Structures are given as structure tokens and as C-alpha cells.
Amino acid sequence: MKEESVGLIIGVSIGVVIGLVLAIFAFFCHRYHRKRSQIGNSSSRRAATIPIRTNGADSCTILSDSTLGPESPIKSDRHGMPFWLDGFKKSSSSMIPASGLPEYAYKDLQKATHNFTTVIGEGAFGPVYKAQMSTGETVAVKVLATNSKQGEKEFNTEVMLLGRLHHRNLVNLVGYCAEKGKHMLVYVYMSNGSLASHLYSDVNEALSWDLRVPIALDVARGLEYLHNGAVPPVIHRDIKSSNILLDQSMRARVADFGLSREEMVDKHAAIRGTFGYLDPEYISSGTFTKKSDVYSFGVLLFEIIAGRNPQQGLMEYVELAAMNTEGKVGWEEIVDSRLQGNFDVKELNEMAALAYKCINRAPSKRPSMRDIVQVLTRILKSRNHGSHHKNSLSATDEVFIDTDQLENKISVTDHRREESLDSVAEVYEV
């Protein structure tokens, strides 16, 4: 009897121990599966939010989704997602993840560019070629120089940035190629070349005044999107007429984000940009901000008005004229002579007054790109309502645009994603 009691106690004890072991095992299994689930969720979020390393600091880049038709000559991995060159996979933090952009096959681009002989431009990081694809689409292919370490980083940054930026006033990136040691960016191809080619070329007719104001508004909308629509905000850093491309309808798009960065600053970095367009505050402080882009845009506005190159004394010309106009009216003396007097005086004075605000030495007194879009939109609305004043307006009829007092009530920027592949370019400037 006593032996039976001992056996019962031992049996119960063993059962309790086994039960505890099973309970502990179940607990850890539950925690393990829960942790795996959390990792999976965070991984799916990281597919849309990917860190970019810029000037030694990390920021987040929100990538856009994109779809591709069955005719596009692209390569995919076995999971249906674009894959990247092994060299990038081995570069740890600089590795470019799937961006949602299609990867074009090297052999297709080689054939489309006649073995890379159709050069149409030379960028800071390599040549640009015209490519006529077998599908019928025409694109611009930017081949990154293989001897530039900085260029390789630029490829990384450009794919990450441009893969998520979509606006009708930006030159959209539509694909890439990372094969055979070559890094290429594939862009929408513009039919009417650069704004600079129309302002200075003897081949093209002079841009009419009726086109110059809408072009200025298109550029402003593209930059306003970069500053306020992109997440995080993007500063262009190299706004100039050769970086403004025109499509077949003469709509302007902002191009060349090779120098673009998020809204981050390295005060020890070398001065970058194009002489004549650089913000004096940036040159002295090394700090590039949105208002530095505004300054460059102001120079571009005067370039559109005067048809004179900023690298050939445009701003000295403007300052001399400003001494007589006080930044308000009387800007007729700087108007492009190729217009032969065919311009609207009221629009001219309004646009020049706005441009003069943009180049204020004090960044805080410059308007924002949103304010600029509103002013240029109002100018065009006045035109459409019939209040056109050709070159007969008296200089005593003052027009003064004070953008510091603008009310931010109207959002005029179209942030819709518009990817157009119907444009064809004869000149693509980078």
C-alpha cells in the first residue's frame, strides 16, 4: 500500500514536470511566431521606406509603385521583381533595393542606340544617348561613367530618388540597366530639347512671349512639387535653362537630378552647381536650402525674359536695370530683342518683379515656390480673361507683386502621378 502511494506521487510529479515543459515550450513557440510575424510586417514596410545615405547622414526615401506593360523589354528575377548588379549587393549600405522601376536589358539598349553611337548630350557623370526601342518607344539613356566612384554613388541616389518622384513637370525616370559593369538610367525622351537651345540657338525660332510665361509656370510647378510634394522634400541644386526640357507640346519639365539631395546640408561639402545661378548665401555659408533653389529660379526667370546667359553678365544687366525700375516697372529695356517688341508689358513687369524678389540677398525675403506658382498662375489667368496689354502700356502704370503678403489659399500644384512615354527628343541636355 505504501509502495502504491509512492508510485502515485512519482507519477504525478513526472506528469507535472512534463506539463510544465510543454507549457514552456508552447510559450516560446508563441513568442517565436509572433516575432517572425512582426519582422514580416516591418519588412513589408521597409519595401516602401528605404534609407538613403546622403552626405554621411541617413534619411528615408518613399518609393512609388509602377506597373509595366507586356511589351516592355525588361528583365526580372524569378520573383518578378527587378534585380540589381551583384556589385551593388556586396556594397552593404549602398545597395539599391527594388525600386519598382523596370530593368532594361543591356543588349536591348545596345541595339536601340546602335551600339551606343547616338550621342545627344554629355552629362556630368557620362554621355546620354537616343534609344529607339524595338517596341516603338523612344527613350533617353544616360550611361554613367565607369571611372567615377562618385558617379556610381550618383547612380544609387538617382534611382532611389527618381524611382519615387512622378510629376508632369519633371522628366521622369522610366527604368534602369545594371549589367556588364554598366549603370544606365532610362528617361522619358523629350521632343523639343532644352529651354537653352530655344533661347540661344540660331536654328530654333525665338520663343514667343505667349510661350515663355507658361514655361516659367511649368518649371515653378515642378520645383514646388520637389519642395512640398515629395516626401521627404528634395532640393534640386542645379536649376538652369539647359536642365529644363520641352516636350512636343512645349510643356516644360525639370531635368537632371544628378545634383539633387534631400533637404540636408553638409557645410563642409564642396560648392556645387552652375556659375551664374548660384545663391550668394550658399557660396558664403555652404548651406543650400529651398530658398537657394528659389534664387536660381529667379535667375532663370530673368534669363527667360532677357534671353541672355547668366554666365555672360545677365545679373549685372539686371542690377543696372533695377536701379531705374526699383524692382517694380520699366523692365522693358532688358527684354529679349529677338521678341521684336512682341510681348505683354504688364505680364513682363509682373514676372520681372517676381524674379527680383527671388534674387533678394536675404533668403528670408524670397518667396516660396508655392507663392511663385500662385503669382505666375494669376498672370496667366489674367491673360485668359482678356486683360492683355501689348507693348503699349505706359511706364507710369505701376505693377508691384508683393509675394510676402500672398495668402496660401489655393493649391495650384498637380501632384498626380503622370508617367508619359509619348515624348520624343532630338536634344537631351543633362
UniProtKB/TrEMBL annotation:
It is an enzyme of class 2 (transferase). InterPro entries: Kinase-like_dom_sf (IPR011009), Prot_kinase_dom (IPR000719), Ser-Thr/Tyr_kinase_cat_dom (IPR001245), Ser/Thr_kinase_AS (IPR008271). The chain crosses the membrane at residues 6-28. Its EC number is 2.7.10.2, 2.7.11.1. Residues 114-380 form the Protein kinase domain. GO terms for molecular function: ATP binding; non-membrane spanning protein tyrosine kinase activity; protein serine/threonine kinase activity. Keywords: ATP-binding, Kinase, Membrane, Nucleotide-binding, Receptor, Serine/threonine-protein kinase, Transferase, Transmembrane, Transmembrane helix. The keyword Ligase does not apply. The keyword ATP-binding applies. It comes from the Eukaryota. It holds the Pfam family PK_Tyr_Ser-Thr. SUPFAM superfamilies: Protein kinase-like (PK-like). Gene3D superfamilies: Phosphorylase Kinase, domain 1, Transferase(Phosphotransferase) domain 1. This is Calcium/calmodulin-regulated receptor-like kinase 1 isoform A.
